[in-house]
Amino acid sequence: MGFISEWKISSKIIRFRIPSFLEDVMKGLDEPKAIFQLLNWQIFNHFSGKYEAIIYKLCRDYIGVKRTPYMTIQEFRDYIGIKSKEYSEFMRLNQFVISGPCKKINQSDISDIEINPEFKREGRKVLGFYFKVASKSQISIPFADCEPNPAFQFSKITIEPLVQSEYLKIRSLEEISLCIERANEYAEEQVKKGKAVNYGGIYRAAITEGWHIQYAEKKIKNILAEKKRRKEKLELSEREKRELNEKKAIKERIENVINKFNQFPEEKKQELRHTFAETLPEITRKIFIKDGESSPMHRYNFALFIEINSYMNS
After folding, report:
1. Pick the CATH number of 1-140 from 3.40.50.740, 1.10.10.10, 3.30.465.10, 3.30.420.150
2. What is the pLDDT of residues 120-129, one digit of tens each?
C-alpha cells in the first residue's frame, strides 16, 4: 500500500496510480525485476517502530539496485504518512523518522540490510534524499519453521529464537503468554477500527512494557465476576426451588382441608360458608356466595378459616 498513493474503486474496476518517481526508476532499469525482492516478514515484524518497518520495507525492495529513488522531503512525508503538523522541523524529522530508524535497522542483529540516507542540500536546507542500501550478514537468522516456545504459541507471527530469548530474559513464560494474549486482543481492536497492525511491534511493546499486569488483573476480575454470577444463579435456582416446593405444599394443604370440609354434613357446611362470608367485604362477599370454596380468590382464606375453626372446635 506504501507504493500506491492514489486509487479508486467502482463496482467492477479497481484503478490505481503508481507514484511518478517509482515509475521513472522502473523505466530506467535494465532489469526491472531487480527492484523487487521477496520480503522476509519475520524480519519486518521484528521492528517495533512504525517508521523502522516502513523504511525497511522500502529499502529491502531496492536491494537489487543498491538505492531507493530520490524523494523530496514532501514526497517522503506523503509516502510515510506524516501529517503536515508532525515533525515540521527537519531536525526532528531526521532524528525520529529518517536517521533514527536507519540506526535501529543497522544495529539490529536480525536485519539483513544496512541503509544510509544520502541528502541533497541547497546551502543548509535539505531538499530531498535517497537511501543507499547494502546487504548485511545477520548475526541471527530467523527460520520460519522453528518450533515456538509454549509461551509464544498464540502469537500471530513467528517470533525468532533470538527475540524469544531476549523476551525470556525479562519475563516469565506465564507473563509472556499473558502479554501475547493481551496484544492479540489489542490488535483485533485496531483491525476493527480499520488500522494497520504490526504484530511484531505490538508484541515487543506488550512484553517490554509489561501488559500482562493489568491483563492478569482483568482476567482475575472476570473470573471472580463469573463465579459470583454462577453463585447467584445457583442461589436463585435454589430459592425458586424452595418457593415452588412451598407453593406445592400450600396447595396440598388447601386440598386436604377442602376435602375434609366436603365430608361435613351439608348443614354444617352451609353454616361455615355463611360465617366466613360475614367476614368478607361486601364486594368480594357476593363472589364467594356465588362460587363458594371453588372461588380462586377465596379458596386459600376459606381453607385457613376452616382449619382454624376445626382447631377451635376440636
Report:
1. 1.10.10.10
2. 999 989 999 9
